[in-house]
Amino acid sequence: MLRDTLKTLLEAYGGVGSEHGVADVIRGLLEGHVDTMKTDVMGNLIVEKFGTDDNGKRIMIAAHMDHIGLIVTHIEDNGFLRVTNVGGIGVDMVRGRHVVFENGMNGVCWVEPKETGTPTLNNLFIDIGAATAEEAAAQVSLGDVAVYAPNVFNLGKHRVASPAMDDRCACALLVELLQYAEEQKNTIVGVFTTQEELGLRGATVAAYAVNPDIGLALDVTAWGDTPETKLPAVKLGEGPAVKIMDRSMVATPAVRDALFSAAELAGVKVQREVLAFGGTDGGAIQRTRAGVPTGTLSIPCRYVHSACETIDMRDMEGALKLLLQFVDHVDI
Fold first, then answer.
1. How many CB atoms lie within 10 A of CB 25?
2. Kind of pairing, strands 106-111 and 294-300?
3. Is 317 labeled as catalytic in the residue annotation?
4. Mind listing the pLDDT tens digit for each residue in 243-270?
5. Which domains are assigned to the chain?
6. Which of 19, 48, 176, 196 does the annotation list as catalytic?
7. What integer pLDDT is reported at residue 168 of this predicted model?
8. 92-119: per-residue pLDDT in tens?
9. Pick from 84, 104, 161, 170: most CB atoms within 10 A?
């Protein structure tokens, strides 16, 4: 069940550069559902599900496993941890937040007071309850990454909020696609990527190796349906969004149109997404080798990069139906 798969993946630790825990969970979920499975030097988990048509396309579908966080840069004499961001995370988002390290160590992130000016990342620290540098160093090392502590909860009947929804909701979609797709014409190359939040690094390497005929990124997008927020013109519960463009790519028209056609075949309502900022693994896939026709299917998500990223399960369910049609019918 999609909601159960999502919850399982949201609860796994996967700070940027340490995504192996998420990959292990996905590997278990896909055992027996795919034809090949391997991990590359970047930590990307690459799986294949063969199509029935010898002349079918190889479709690379990417969803990133990494979760933004805070990396330890220094340990103070009094045991507090100085940190900086790994990925797009800001001071206002982390103040007073419960964070957790890969080894299970809990912490509270806070911001030291300033007499003048606005606090910056240099003013962040994490309290793990240590009284000395030696006590702290016995529990956490320089270079360890803390992420928002897992906390999955429902908002009403259809919506779910949690840290790491970006991009575990897309990982859940890709897992379910690979579980449910049967006798599809085209070969699906599912790539669960690493270090997307640091510049699409995992996808860049994976796309070069996979050398697909068609590329598709699955990711969240921003929202335009809360007070005083109107752009992008995307609303939760109104269906997944077919990306037209963002800062990393202009979607290949043929792939974009194939997504609209798949939505029609599936009877799924979709939205058109124009994002004036940000990017996805699609930008890396599209520019690999001599170029790959590429698109992106997005899940509308409120409060992106916060500890309460919120999606609507109806958009997820629609996206899955669309993808099942897309992998069977796309022919570019």
1. 21
2. unpaired
3. no
4. 999 999 999 999 999 999 999 999 999 9
5. 2-67+164-329 (3.40.630.10), 69-148 (2.40.30.40)
6. 196
7. 98
8. 999 999 999 999 999 999 999 988 889 9
9. 170
